[in-house]
Every structure is written in C-alpha cells, then in structure tokens.
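User: For a reading group we're discussing how well predicted structures match intuition. Take Major facilitator superfamily transporter. Before you show the prediction, I'll give you the sequence so everyone sees exactly what went in.
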Amino acid sequence: MCYAGLVLDLCIKDASVLPPTGDTISLEHLAPRLSASPTEPYPDITPGHHIQNTGIRAANRVSMSVSECEPLLRGSDPGDSQLQHGGERDAEAITKIAGERTNRRIDIYLLPLLVLLYLFNGLDRGNIGNAQTQGFTDDIGCSPDDLNTATSLFFAFFVIFQPFSAAVGAWLGPKQWIPIIMFLWGVVTVAQTFIWGRGSLLATRMLIGLFEAGFYPTALAYLASFYRPFDLGKRIALFYGQYAIANAFSGAMAYGIFQIQHPVLKPWQLLFLTQGGLTCLLAVVAWVWLPAGPDTAWFLSEQERAWVVERVRPEKPGITVRDFVETVRDWKLWYVLVCNICASVPSTAFSVFLPLVVQGMGYTALEANLMSVPPAVCGAVGLYLFAWSSDHHRERGYHIVAALMLSLVGLVGVVAASTDQAKYVALCVFLSGSYVSAPLTAAWLSGNTAASKRGLVLGINGFGNLAGVLGSLLFRAEHAPAYRTPLCRTLGFVVAALAGYMSYRSALQAVNRHRALIRGAKSGEEIDTETRDVVRLGAPRIADRGYYGL
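Assistant: Thanks. Here is the predicted 3D structure of Major facilitator superfamily transporter, as structure tokens, for the group to look at:
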C-alpha cells in the first residue's frame, strides 16, 4: 500500500484525523487509526515518515478541501493502482481517481444516448443510398443524377447553416435544441416516404441538411461542458465513429426491411418511414433524458455537479478581436482545411454511395445492403484503433498519414483488382483508414489552439464537410456499375491529402524550430508581457502556446 493510498483511505473513512492544509503528520501516529485489513497492512510505515497535507488539487487548479474529497471518492479502493508511491501524498492522483469516477457516471448515463442520437443522424443522412438500390429515383419520377444533385444540396445546406444552427444551440441550450432539430429532420425523413418529383426530392434533402447541420457542433459543445479537453479525445472518436457505424447499421436495417412485402408501400418507403419514426421517438427520449448542463445533471451527486462545473469553467475564456484576426490570418489553418476536405471526400461519398458501389461488385440489390456492413464496420474499427493509438502516443500527424496510406493501398486495390472478391476485400482495407482524418484533425487543431480561439478554429475546420459536395458529384449513374472513374478521382483526392498532411506536419516542425530560436532570445518578463497583451495586432505572439504538437 503506497502512502497516497494510505491518505486516500483516511480521506474516505476518517477525514478528521488529517491535519490542516500545509501541516505534516507522523505516519507512526496515524498507523493505529488506519482501517487496513489484516491481510492488507501498511508495511511501508516506518519511524520518521511524514505526510504533508497539501490539499486535493485538480489538474486545472480547482482546489478541493479534504472534506470535499470524501463524497467524490466514496467507494474507491484505497489501494488503487493509479496512486503513486512516494513520501508525499499524491494529491493529483487522488483527484484523478475522483475525476475518473465522475467521468464513468457521465459515460454511463449521458454519452451512450448522444452516441445513439448521432448514429441516427448518420442513418437519415445516408439512407437515400440504400433506397436507391430499390429503384427509389425511378419510383418518384426522377433521374439517377437527381440523387447526386440532392446529396450535394444536402451537404451545401449542412455547411452553410452549421454556424447559425450552432449559435441557436448555444443560445437556446443543447437540452432543447438537440431534440428539436432531431425531431424536425425525423419528420422530414418520414415525409420522404410520400414524395414525388425532382422538386420534392431536392426540398426534403435540403431541409434534412438544414436541420442536421447544428447537431454535431451543439452536441460537441454539450460534451465539452461535462469533460475536460484531455478527457474528450476518445469520446469524440467514439462519437464520430457512429458516422461509420451508421453505414453498417443502415445496411443491416435496410436488408431486413427490404424483405418485408407490404401491400401498399414500397421497400424504400418502409425504410424512410421506419428510420424517420425512430428518429422522432429518440428525439422525445432526448428531451426527457438530457440535463440542461452539468449543474443540473440528475445522475451526478451534488458534489460531483459542483466539481464538474468548476473543472470545466477555466476552459471558457472569451474571444478577443486579436484572437479573431490572428485566426483568420493563419495560413496554416486554411491549408489544413484544404487537406481535410481532400481526405474527407471518401468518407462523405461512401456514406451515401457505398451500397451502390458494393452492388456493382456482382451483388443483388438486396445483398448489396447486407454486404455494405463489413466495409463500414472496418471503417469504424480503424477509426477507433487510430484514435486510441493517437491519444496513447500523443501524436496526430503520423497517425493521419498512416491512415491515408492505408486508404491509398486499399483504393488502389479496388481500382486495380481483377475479381469482385478482391475488390471487396480492398474496399474493406480502403474504408479502414477513410474515417480517421476528420476527427484527428479536429483533435490536432484543438490541442494546438489557445482556448480563446478554439471554437473559432474548429468552426472554420467544420467547412471540411464541403467534401460531401465534391463526393456527391463523383459517383454518377453513368459510371455504374464499376464506378472506375469516380474511384480514380477519389484516389487523386487521397494522394493530395497525403502529400498535404505530410507537408503540414513538416511546416509545424519548422515553426517550432523558429519559435525555439525566438523564445531563447526573450526573457521571461517579455514573454509574460506579450501574453497579457490582448489588443496589439502586430506580429504574432511567440508565447501563445509554446510549441505545436505534432
């Protein structure tokens, strides 16, 4: 049992034995009052050992008193392996355990519902591709190219209205805005069941794009109000991964629904009716279930609510004129935005056209929906593995490059393979790396951006969804069933993204070397003065963030 574990045990069971903050206490004096079991004694206690009560301190400098740690840590194992050995009480380790216990409650009661909501966000976005395998455009009196136009308009409206919808979400609150827009796009999805003609097709897709636009930024801002940034990375990956899972789930659901023989409704009508109806139902559940924020989270104790509010509050500085000007003038942001658009073309295009590409590999319309599941699952698994490795190694650039190289290898296989079976395997490899760049780019930018600029930077990066407009125009019916020309053009986007991200990482390394030279010539007082200056619009401050993470 380490010393930190000893003090944690005291904190939980008898906080009264601890001295005031800053004082020390002899472990010999405390030993008789410890609650260790006979099978787990405290063998480290020897004459002369002392512990200083430094108070429990959160990683973001939010202080906690000894008495406050008891309700947060109730039930913790005093011998938790995360507590470090040492002569002093490891206050940060104790706070870390309390934070992880609180995060677990949020992970159980909040995160799964938001993940499910985003899953249906992806379902209603891409189910038009599943419907097309059942003759959707023919049945409503449209041409196959109208499907491409409708999909392009969806992404155009999605990008244009995203900042406005996110602003409404910030004003109204995620608890209200997320269920409202979800219910609205669910209603429009149901309405697609009964549309006829090109105009109604374009109108419904534009409306779905408009209503879906605010979900992702509002939900991320909502999550950020519960988690600290360094706790958020894996949750964002899990959240974004539903974009890939939606393809798999939609394919499996479509396969089941399309086998239903309805006397009146066509298979694609049943698909829209079912998925739209479930979306509306989930919106009602979200309205009831979601708390307004951490301060009203019904699944947290009073102490946990207060602690979550305090630990997140320092991450919300206001943006200044200087922050805005520096962000807009930063060429690196616009450069990586272009890279992100190129890298996102495959994932956005295949979110709609995957069943059609699979159908071109020799499968029937019904089989194509089922066989679109494994490639989509590969995409989700690839994203989770790359995201985990990226967080574990604290590195972004090489992970994005590696994912793009994997996509490149798979896509070359799809284009060059001579058999449908080989093409299908290569498609799975291709999608394994196709969903990685967007969330890791967002995490990369977030980690390299001052807190006051982070929202603006990520908002600009959100224009990466323009990739959906490009991807939608590639896979036209004239290229069916092999889609060789669209796949070759997609290959060009992947190559451009690969070269772009490699040069972007090299550029950050060069900036770091330049900063090191300049910072070495500055005194600490000069750097502090520069940091406090939020009005000057001259040369960029060297002290903003130190060095870029790679």
